[in-house]
Amino acid sequence: MITAIAKRSAGRPQTINPDKIWPEVLGYIASGDALSTALKRLDPAPSYTWAKVQLRENPELQSAYRAAIEDRADSLADDIIALADSEPPAHLEGAALSAWVQQLKLRVHAREWTASKLRPKVYGQQIDVSVQHTQISVLAALALAEKRVIGSI
Fold this sequence. Notes:
Strand content: under 5%
Shape: flat
Helix content: 55-70%
Number of helices: 7
Number of strands: 2
């Protein structure tokens, strides 16, 4: 299905083939971009509204988009490690060094927050403390113990 996207200038609208656009968009998303940023990388750039309509109407695309979102969370987690391991520039001292550290902390925090929202079970802060209840039969345990005692005599 090829759809037309209106250009900002006069002339015939350009047509965009979703089958050609989406693999590239999903690749950008998996590499860490948001949907809006990934769309802006394309020429011509489809609108965000166009992309959301496409996602809403196509279950296969929805599944691929969800997988790309999970990959994005993993990419952001990798970015956190790279940022944490980065050395401060040698020429920075005093207030400039402190500002650089604060900027780095902000970048790390933004990636942590985003990754925790995209994949909460993997990168979320909440600890699962749910208890699985298993029913124990005291009579069955006594019967097994009795069999062991009788069997050992």
